[in-house]
Design goal:
Distance between the termini: 90 Å
Helix content: 55-70%
Structural class: mainly alpha
Radius of gyration: 31 Å
Largest sheet: 5 strands, parallel
Strand content: 5-15%
Number of strands: 11
CATH class of the domain at 590-847: Alpha Beta
Oligomer: single chain
CATH superfamily of the domain at 590-847: SGNH hydrolase
Shape: globular
CATH architecture of the domain at 590-847: 3-Layer(aba) Sandwich
Length: 852
């Protein structure tokens, strides 16, 4: 609505300049910290700023139309001309179906038919080159809002302008945020410029910045609080896992704050989407606070229609049935939302249990509240007692939500129970510390509740200029801290932590699950078993946790694991599998060839030719060359370098035989030595190690060994029995049980390889090969692991070589085969090959020089 008194032009210019300056600072924060860059938000920020600068000076009657045109133009810019045009055209067609001059139910039937056709495209029953780009965004715009729109359209009493109808669907931030709050159509109209323009703009800026802070907090939780599955082994780690699961909701909250804040810059004065949900005093209270728009949508579309229809049969019965319908609907709509965003419609036991428990608790709580004596409620308890009760309820609800959220993030109820059971063997000291922390939280909560009841914690009301100073100042401080952290991250731990929040990266949990899930995929295909149920869960929902690998870019459908690509075949010993022989294919979009011996290499005769120096390379996927073309793995480059520089000089031919196989750990490499490696008469065996990665690829193979009943050497059999490994255990359980034995397994493998080499006069060389992902995570931790594992190798009798610092001065992101795959690309492989050549050249006796 128009304000009665319009500020003077100088006042408006001053406020406009203040908003633009804040937008610039906020844009710098988004760019510096890469806020949801993978979703396109950083790219959208200039469009938002430029659009606001024009929109703020347009006459009121032109603003809504400009907002729609801005969204359409941004769609062409972000998605590309064709995809953007298809998005706009499909959206207009759906809106047009709602307004055909035919009976309402016939219109609904046509909309449903159109939705069914689009769903067939989304499910890829019908293939189109644009469906995976356009339909997730179209679904985000229409999947819930179209339901609300049809409901309000049927009850509409006043005409609504065309551009208002279009703006309701074509909301600018929807282009980069598929997970979007369910905005009510009537509220959308009612709140449009319902206050002073600049008061709305300022609130929008505050919410955008607050949302960004939430997103940075999410990164901190994601990187530093979520434990890797193999590290969940006692009460502390279980509590850490359970608590961090629920804390991840700050990402959804952060996105929603940014979304509503951006809409505020264009006059849509929408209310808050989340209200202090971690401080809810009951599940019913939590439902009122968390994702408020979803609660309003559920009440409008599900709860009230059912309640009004059943209330004649009794208020209590109507309330119970309507509440159950709301939560069952939320469960199914969760899968419906997942379908449009991800292309699948999941119905899982975890979802069923999660929503079932919440439904039962909310219904029981509602019944208790409905039967509570009003007179007893009116009598105020002692303030201290009331504060204590409030704190106890809040901690209890938070704990329950942590448990439920950790269930929702689990692969299955059984996996969740097995994880919680890890706390059972904890020491009394751990339980005592946990009890003390709980008591401290209860005391702090009581004091905070007491202070809040007396108005002490009430935030001050800010005017335009004070709000601008606070928001702009906070944005500038964030930028300054980020820039300073980049220059001091190696010298100051605090700066290092802040710098780690400045770009998305995998945490330990997802790195471990990705490695485990990827290598489990090696056992896929027609000939080898795969257990897809063990892959990491990925969830989005109206109030859902973020995807499990939310910080990484998703691999495209054609980026297959080696087993899915048909590269692997089973073998009957504890190698478990090996590469197929004489295979020529495309793997991860690169030519991939194996020779007649099953090596990812050119052909070599079994017996070594005269005047030839042979090096056998043992390793995993980096040695095999996962994601690089034939000849671009570092083994091929090393061989070429040795022959180009030293071959003619020494009158030798150098052959580096690549025995690397994706997913092989030290035990499989021992088995390869026992099988046929030494039939190729190597002079040197190079064993490539990769620090923390070796833990996963060494230990997770034991699950497949146990499932197939493969015989192991007696020393390994003893370890397996001591760890309690059996065929029914899940991958994470196997890894967790074997982590304490990792050193023992590794030492066994090193000792056996050295024994095999010495028995044949072959020189064993252990070489540490860092991967690009080591440089993107906690490099210090990998250095410590390398030092420890190198010591084990030296004790076993290996000569050791370290390639630490091989990527110094190079951005690790430029060394990966793809944003979603951390294996070294051709550039990274060349750096490894050149450094390894130099290290070998320093040791001439290893490569046919003096002293051999």
């Amino acid at each position: 609505m128009e304000t009665e008194t319009k500020p003077s032009l100088p006042v408006r210019l001053g406020r406009f300049a203040a908003v633009l300056l804040q937008l610039g600072a906020i844009g710098a924060v988004a760019h510096l910290f890469e806020i949801e860059e993978s979703l396109g938000f950083v790219k959208l920020v200039p469009v938002i700023a430029g659009g606001f600068a024009i929109h703020a000076w347009l006459p009121r009657h032109l603003r809504m139309g400009f907002f729609v045109l801005l969204t359409a133009g941004a769609a062409l810019y972000l998605l590309g001309p064709l995809a953007g045009a298809l998005l706009v055209a499909a959206g207009l067609a759906l809106i047009g179906l709602c307004h055909l001059p035919i009976p309402f139910l016939a219109r609904v039937a046509l909309v449903l038919a159109a939705a069914a056709g689009l769903a067939a495209l989304r499910a890829e029953w019908l293939e189109t080159p644009w469906s995976s780009t356009v339909l997730p965004v179209l679904g985000a715009m229409f999947m819930f809002r179209l339901i609300v729109y049809l409901y309000d359209l049927r009850h509409e009493k006043q005409p609504v302008p065309l551009f208002t109808r279009l703006a309701y669907f074509f909301m600018l931030p929807n282009l980069c945020f598929p997970l979007f709050p369910v905005v009510d159509f009537k509220m959308f109209q009612r709140t449009y410029f319902n206050e002073d323009d600049y008061a709305i703009y300022q609130k929008g800026l505050r919410w955008i910045l607050l949302g960004m802070v939430h997103l940075l907090l999410y990164r901190a939780v994601y990187l530093y609080l979520i434990p890797a599955p193999s590290r969940v082994e006692d009460l502390y780690s279980v509590l850490q896992l359970v608590t961090s699961a629920y804390l991840q909701y700050v990402r959804i909250s952060g996105m929603f704050h940014v979304i509503v804040g951006v809409l505020g810059l264009f006059g849509f004065n929408l209310p808050a989407t989340n209200r202090w949900y971690f401080l809810a005093g009951s599940l019913t209270d939590m439902w009122r606070r968390i994702n408020v728009y979803w609660r309003d949508f559920s009440q409008k579309i599900i709860y009230f229609p059912i309640f009004m229809r059943l209330r004649k049969s009794g208020q209590t019965r109507a309330m119970v049935v309507a509440t159950i319908a709301v939560f069952v609907g939320s469960w199914l709509l969760h899968s419906y939302q997942w379908f449009w965003i991800r292309g699948e419609f999941p119905i899982t036991s975890v979802d069923m249990l999660f929503w079932g428990v919440i439904t039962c608790v909310v219904v029981l709580n509602s019944l208790v509240e409905a039967r509570r004596d009003p007179d007893a409620t009116a009598r105020e308890p002692h303030p201290l007692r009331a504060a204590f009760a409030r704190a106890a309820r809040t901690i209890g609800v938070f704990g329950l939500m942590c448990l439920l959220w950790s269930l929702w993030c689990s692969d299955s109820p059984r996996d969740w129970i097995d994880t919680l059971a890890q706390a059972s063997g904890s020491s009394p000291n751990q339980w005592g510390v946990a009890a003390a922390v709980l008591a401290g939280a209860l005391l702090a909560g009581t004091l905070a509740a007491l202070a809040a009841s007396r108005g002490i914690l009430r935030p001050p009301r800010l005017g335009f200029w004070s709000g601008a100073a606070l928001t702009g100042g906070a944005a500038v401080i964030l930028v300054a801290c980020g820039l300073a952290a980049r220059g001091m991250e190696e010298r100051h731990p605090a700066a290092g932590y802040l710098a780690s929040l400045m770009e998305p990266r995998l945490n330990e949990r997802d790195a471990e699950l990705r490695t485990m899930g990827y290598y489990e995929g090696l056992l896929a295909g027609d000939e080898v078993e795969q257990d897809r149920a063990d892959l990491p869960p990925k969830r989005v929902a109206p109030i859902a946790p973020p995807p499990a690998v939310a910080q990484s870019t998703e691999a495209p459908p054609d980026w297959l694991a080696a087993g899915d690509a048909g590269l692997m075949r089973r073998v009957p010993d504890y190698r478990v599998y090996e590469l197929k022989k004489s295979r020529r294919t495309v793997f991860k979009r690169a030519d991939f060839t194996t020779n007649s011996w099953g090596m990812r290499d050119k052909f070599y005769p079994r017996h070594k030719p005269a005047k030839t120096m042979r090096i056998a390379l043992l390793g995993a996927s980096p040695e095999m060359g996962s994601g690089v073309a034939d000849g671009d793995n570092y083994e091929s480059m090393l061989e070429q370098r040795l022959n180009d520089v030293l071959g003619a000089e020494r009158g030798l031919r150098y052959e580096v035989l690549n025995f690397g196989v994706a997913g092989w750990g030290v035990t499989q490499q021992v088995a390869k030595c026992e099988a046929d490696l030494f039939e190729f008469e190597p002079d040197v065996v190079l064993f490539a190690a990769h620090s923390g990665r070796d833990v996963n690829i060494s230990l997770r193979m034991f699950r497949n060994i146990a499932r197939r009943g493969i015989a192991l050497p007696e020393e390994l059999e003893k370890i397996v029995r001591a760890a309690g490994i059996h065929a029914e255990m899940r991958k994470t359980q196997v890894v967790g049980a074997l982590v304490p034995h990792f050193e023992e397994i590794t030492r066994f493998g090193y000792r056996k390889i050295v024994e095999h080499c010495r028995a044949r006069g072959v020189v064993p060389v252990w070489v540490h090969v860092p991967l690009p992902e080591d440089y993107m995570k906690n490099e210090r931790r990998h250095e410590v692991e390398e030092t420890a594992i190198a010591a084990w190798a030296e004790e076993a009798g290996f000569e050791t070589i370290s390639l630490a610092g091989v990527y110094d001065g190079v951005d690790p992101e430029t060394l990966k085969v793809a944003p979603w795959d951390n294996h070294p690309n051709a550039k990274g492989s060349r750096l490894i090959a050149e450094r390894l050549y130099r290290e070998l050249a320093k040791r001439p006796r290893l490569i046919g020089g003096e002293g051999r």
